[in-house]
Structures are given as C-alpha cells and as structure tokens.
Amino acid sequence: MTQRYDAVVIGAGIVGAACARECAQAGMRTAIIEQGTIGGGATAAGMGHIVVMDDSPAQLALTRYSQLLWSDLASQLPPSAEYETCGTLWVAADEEEMAEVLRKQELYRSAGVPVEVLDQAQLREAEPNLRPGLAGALLIQSDAVLYPSAAALHLLNQAIEQGADLCAGAHVLHCGNGSLQLSDGTTFAADRIINAAGALAGALTPGLQIRKRKGHLVITDRYPGFVRHQLVELGYLKSAHSVSGDSVAFNVQPRKTGQILIGSSRQYDEESPGIESRILTAMLDRVGQYMPGIAELSAIRSWTGFRAATPDKLPLIGPDERDPTLFLATGHEGLGITTSLATARLLADHFRGAAPAIPLDPYLPSRFAAEAAHA
Amino acid sequence: MSLSFEIVVAGGGPAGIAAAIVAAESGKRVAIVDDNPRLGGQIWRGGLTPSGETKEWHKRLEACASLITHLPGVRIVDHPAPRTLVAEAADGVAFTIEYGKLILATGAREGFLPFPGWTLPNVMGAGALQAMVKSGLSVEGKRVVVAGTGPLLMAVAAYLRHAGAKVLMVCEQASLGRLARFGMTLARDRDKLLQTLRYGRETISIPFRTSCWPVAASGAEKLTGITLRQRRRQWQLACDYLACGFHLVPNTELASLLGCRLQDGFVAVDETQSTSVPDVYCAGEATGIGGVELSLLEGQIAGLAAAGRHDQSRTHFRARSRAQGFASTLAQTFALRSELRSIPTPETIVCRCEDVPLRDLLQHTSWRSAKLHTRCGMGPCQGRICGAATHFLFGWNQDSVRPPVFPARVSTLAHFTHKLRDNDFEAKETQ
C-alpha cells in the first residue's frame, strides 16, 4: 500500500532531521526515512562546531544565519546535546597570518559578527597550552560546539512531536517523480521529496556534483580546562579549501565532558572507512606543533567519516530542476552541523512561498546545471 | 625506537609462554609482549616458578631464555602497516615492533553483568579481587561472597579463604544438573579431577549454591550486603566484599584490528592455529574458553607452526581435540541463564565509564545507536565491560575496532609519522 505525504525526507542526519522538523512545523504531512542510526553518518563523525566561516559571501551569510538559529534554539536543547558557546580562536602563527586576522576581523564585523583580536600575550592567557610564540588570534565569541548526534535526535523528536512519521531500518531503492520505493516493500507518494542523504545523496539522484571527502578524528580522555575554545589554525583555510590532495590542519575542540576532540584531515576519493596511519599521524603531528602538551594526553578513540563536498564549497539547497518533486539538502561538506538549521528554514520558506532571510540563489542546485550547459 | 623479531607473541599467559618457548626451541628469535609486569597471564599471575604446576615450563624457558625477549608492561595499541605494531610501555614510551610472524595469545577477561549496586566500592571482579590480594590487599577476617559462574569461582574462593577471608558462600548460576554433567566429564580426566579435588579440600566447608545469583548489592558508600536469589527464594546477606565473575570474555580486539575473522565472538583459526590473516596465529582463550591445558596445547601448535615445524605441531593435534571437548563442555555448563537478563532494573548502570543506566539503552536497537545517543561504551574501557553485557542483554555486537586498541598517549598514535613520511617520499619519487 502506498503512503501519501506532503513531504518525504531521505536521511535522518542533522540536515534531514532539521528539514523534517521545519516541514512538520509548517503543517506539512511529513515522513523521514533513515536506513541506519539517527544522526549516525557524517553527523556522528563530525566535530559539532557551530562556526561562522567566510570563504565566500554566500558561506558567510549561510553560516551566520544558521548560527543565530542555533543560538535561538540553544535553550531548548537537551543536556545530551552538550551545547556550549565556547567561541572559536583562529590562531595566527606569524605576522603574515596576523594580517589575515585583521582582514577577517573587518569582514566579520561588516557581517555583524562580534569579534575580538588577541595579541600574543592575550592568546597565551586565553589558551596556556598553545605553544609560546604564536602571533595572536581572532576570537569569534558567538561560535559554539555541540554533540551532533544528540542534536539530530532532538530535531527529529521535535519533528515527530509535530506529527512527522519516522520510517527506520529500510533504505530507499528508488525515488523521483513523486514516489519512493523502500527496500522493505513500502512505497510512498509525496508532493516533495527531499534528498538529505549526505555523501550518499548521489546514489539516489544521479548527476549531483558531490564527492566524498574523508576526515579523521581522535578523542582524548577527560582533561577539563586543557582547551577552552575551539582552536583552529588560520592555515586551516588553505588546507580546507585546497581542491585536491590530502591535507591536515590543527583543529581541536573542548567537549563539555572535558574531553578534547582532535582534528582535522581532508582526503578526496578515499572510499575506505578505515583509519589510515599516514593521515592520522600527520594530523596528530600538526596538532603537536601548535599544542605540544597534547602529546602526553591519553587518546581513547579514533574514527573517520565522509563529508559531502561540492566544487564551490556551498551546499545544494532547493529544487532539482530535472524533477519538480525533488529537492536537495546536501553537499554541506564540513559545515553540515552549522548550516543544518538554515538549510531547513530556507527550504521551508521556499515551500511556503515566504521570503527567505537570506537569498537562496547561491545554494540552488541549478548553479551547476547552468555551468554544465555552458561547458 | 624500533624492535624487530622473527616471531612476536602478544600475551604472556600460558598460550603465549608455550608458543614462545617452542618457537625459541626451534631456534627462532622471539619476543613476548605483555601488559602485565610478570609472565604468567591471569592464571599464573605469580609468574613461572621452579616448582609446582609451572615447573616444566619454567625449566624450558630457562633453557632457551637467550632467544626470548620479554617486554613486560607493554600494550600493543596500533597496527599502522603490514608486519608492524605500535606499542606503549607503562612509562608512556612508544616504539614499533616489526614481526615476521605474529602469535596472538591475548587471553580473556572476566565477564560482568549489571545488577543494582554492582558499581558500589568492594563489589569486584572475582579475578580482580584475587589479583588485589596477591598485590597486598588484606582480606583477613573479611566476609566475602563469591558469585557468578564458571570454574574460576571455586579457585578464587579457595585462594581468598587461604588468604584469611571468611568466604560466606559461593553462588553459581548454573544448575546442579549441568554441574553434575560437568563433573562426569571431569571424572574422565585424572588431572582435572585432582585439581578440582584440591580446590574441594580447601573449599569443602564453604556453602556452595547452584542456580543462585546476586540480584542486588547494597550499601551507602561501600558494599554492606547483597541480595541473593535461588529459584523462588530471595534473601539478604551482610558482607564486606562481593567477588563476581560471569565466566570469561575473549580479548579479540587486537585480532579484529589486524583484520582476523571472528566466529561466534572468538578468533577463527585453522588446525595450525592460523587466523584468516597470513602469518598471524592465535592460541588460547581468544579462540575459545578452554582453560590452561588447551591454551598450552594451542600455544605449542601455533609456536611450532610459526617456526615452520609443521610435522612437530601435528603431534599435539589429538591432545588438543580432547581438550577442546572439555572447552565445549565448559561453554555448555556455564552458559548464562536467561533469567539473568531481568536482574538489572531501569536505573541500573550498564556502562560505568559513562554512567549510562539500562533505561537509556532500552530505546535503542543497536550498539551503534546506543553508543551514539547514550555514550554507552564511549569511555576509557572502550566498551570492554558494557560491550559483553549488552551482547548478553540485547544481542548487540560492537563496532569494528580502531586504534588505539587500548587508551594510549596522543604521541604514541602519532609515533609513526616520520617513518611513514619517508616511505611516502620514496613512493612519490618512484612514480
């Protein structure tokens, strides 16, 4: 028997859960399909950094908008979501990077993001476990951290409270033209299908410009106070945005538990989920260069995950022009936790015909279709 | 620092010792890597001695000692490249160990089941309490109850009594009928019967109850009493220590990291003790819980096979299959009864690293889901305790094993960088 919905969301990662919540809150009859664990894909593998980033004006607009949505939601999040506004310190190693700090300061200010520049001594005071001699840092006070899987579950639970149905344990065999077929024999008919399957989205919707970008993370035992802010090297921008090749960057996060999450790495076209010593050790080496004392701490786990990366570092949000029933909410690469709420709100506004808080155009999937047509 | 050996044995219990000795007797350079300070594993914790049951192995070890390097207090934490292990010593120093052949003799740990109060101070693993007494804890005059399942309970009770404890009772969850059938098997085996009678002499005056198990432990700051159940009867007993052990759980983490195939929770091996990974062997409790005798036989077979002496290894096959018969009897006798699944209450802590109560786990259908959403198994024990408990309670299986196999310093995980980078450059140049 076919079940009918206004909207069916594929994938209960943080993006899918947020979309289901917005659809349900907008009064749409909503279902969400998850083949595995709620928030168990890239959501579980990610750091959970709510961060405003300025790689492009569109990225700045989306991350800032979403950060404000998180900030509004924060008081409703359960303790398990471990939400904490610890701020981000973009660490400048030398004077050249300090110049970048000042440039970013202007940019963030113009976007209304409160920032502060720390000099060498202030950075030392703020983070005594960083190595001496670092030039300074840019502090983004409003950045936060959270535990993504628990946050995704909360968003999903809110969707369910608003009447959404969860269909767990089966995967989608086929979707398009208003219908979905599941591996357990269920079929759905929907006015709108939202593909929020992350790095797997391309398997359901061929032709998407999404590549898997693998990352490694390590977590330590509990050392409360060892790290106080999310710390990221400014060089991260170079490594995060290099379009090819493997890269690592110093990126550590204090968890509410007192644990320290250590990253980060980026690799294209690596399909195996296993830990690669070559990457893990290069990453930990890089971290040790900024924070030598971390070497003595006890590491208890490591893992990997796959980001869904697009060529221009912006997600795919909105209608797929080839199918009037199909919508995309994927391609968030390393910013899915941050931008999940804005993604969902922009889609819901689009469905309602309401004016979006920020222009949707830069994220429309059609931008790549247009490119392909010109090529 | 980097060490290199023809044969590396991971684990210094009976299986590992036997494997290392026969390999060294065959002229191989061998290392035994063991996380305990002394050889002997859990069962021969006192080490090998010139007299008593370890006499023969002590003598043989002495004779080939020049070929065996013992690395005590060392944990293998990673397997970053073929034939290479990263290890960390107790002082935090990391080094790599390269091997031609690897014999896994990683043994087993005690199984625990959660029940109300099991996390109170002085509720301990039976083997753990025995080990603490061996390290100097006094139980002189203390009232101790030994509970759980398996042949180790009597051994622990005998030991504690010998150390001056008042062992009030041994509670075995298995039924008398099952134990009687187990006894019949023992009676066919002279050595095991004698060993049992020895324990019997020491424990003859200790009340031994079958089909009996703890349902709760109580006390404000530490244990003051327990509630026991036998069939429909339930009663309380004041005590100072509860030594609990629900049989043994194989240590298969390193084997999993290496990619060895597991079967029914144990490392799968062929007749030469070879795992599914070339040049990696496994012997002892990690291949099936079978006791010292089987471990020694498997260790010898693995050691001889790794040393290339296949004909010699075959001479132990018949004895091994006899001992395996005992192992399967053990498994049948001490299988946990399903009633034990209903002892924990919704409030009972299941994951003690992260304080996760049973209530939180009931909403999940898999280990991964429970782990992600409740933190169960995310603590420093890496699920070694709650993983086995949730396997019994819910039938869940744990995730794949990733480095570090044991918590290790960040610098240890990063240890391999320079060497690997050098290799990388070489690889690039030749492309």
Automatic annotation (TrEMBL), chain A:
InterPro entries: FAD-dep_OxRdtase, FAD/NAD-bd_sf
Gene3D superfamilies xrefs: D-Amino Acid Oxidase, subunit A, domain 2, FAD/NAD(P)-binding domain
Coiled coil, from the record: none
Keyword terms of this UniProt record: Oxidoreductase
Domain FAD dependent oxidoreductase: 6-349
Cytoplasm found in the keyword field: no
GO molecular function, one term: oxidoreductase activity
Source domain of life: Bacteria
Gene Ontology annotations for the cellular component aspect, listed alphabetically: cytoplasm
Source species: Acidipila rosea
Protein name as catalogued: Glycine/D-amino acid oxidase-like deaminating enzyme
UniProtKB/TrEMBL annotation, chain B:
Domain FAD/NAD(P)-binding: 6-287
Keywords assigned by UniProt, alphabetized: Oxidoreductase
GO terms, molecular function: oxidoreductase activity
Pfam family of the protein (one): Pyr_redox_2
Protein name as catalogued: NADPH-dependent 2,4-dienoyl-CoA reductase/sulfur reductase-like enzyme
Species classification: Bacteria, Pseudomonadati, Acidobacteriota, Terriglobia, Terriglobales
